[in-house]
Amino acid sequence: MISDLEIITFSFLFKSKMKALLLITLLVILSFNYSNAQYSLFIKDGSIKMQPLSEAELKKQLSNYDFSKLFTCTDNSVIYGFIGNDHQRIRIKFISVTKDSSALNTYKVYGKSMVKNNVDEFNGSIVISNISKQKVMSYGVDDEYKNKGFKGEYVISGSYSFLEKPEQNHTGTFNGTFRTGYYLDRKYNVHYDDINNYSDGYTNNLFSGKWKSHNGKIVQICNWGDYRIPNSGNFDVGAAEFSPNTGDTTLGWQSIHDMWIRDKNGKLTAKAKQAKRIEEAKWWQ
Q1: pTM, two decimal places
Q2: Contact predicate 74/256, CB 8 Å
């Protein structure tokens, strides 16, 4: 016969386990919701299209990987960004990104920014908050990667904070959130996710946030990314390629327009070739 004490003990243990289970479930939901909130920052205005993510949070399982090369492998000529409501062009170059050995999921960043002819150095960090897997694996043109044994496409997201040196001109801090896609090959090596780089609207390494002057008097939106700019609204009017929607030659985008000018024979003009040299110049050196 079960005593009253045993019944009370059983009831207490049952309730405790149920509370623990509910707590774990709540944490999973909150983690997933946070991941999707981070993810949605880059698609809220419809300027960027992305694949849906699975519900599982994979940061704990995948944090041992080194993701530093994902941020430095793209040619700077196709990294576009703007600062301020007038979409003044800003160019961002990550010169070095290294995994912090003393802080898990943190990457040290050194780079340079350029607005007009003003080039400034910055240092800071990228912190990974979430790692998720895409629900559906992409296989490229004509399914060229279908039989390669790839383990899946993933998205890392989190925050960044970069500090420009105060002694430089027109300096401040960059803060915001980022989203980067990668895939694992059959040997579980990390690769920058360029599987769909043939498609219109392809993008990666999306950074969305604010720039704030050191004196705190100026705060401006500042976004950049590979091939496309997140949350750019109607500013990007390109189909196959990025195309800035501005005729203001003082905002830094004129060479983007000029580099496609051709003569009556379909050849690039001298003006277009000069614009191409401007876009491909290693301005940070």
Answers
A1: 0.83
A2: no
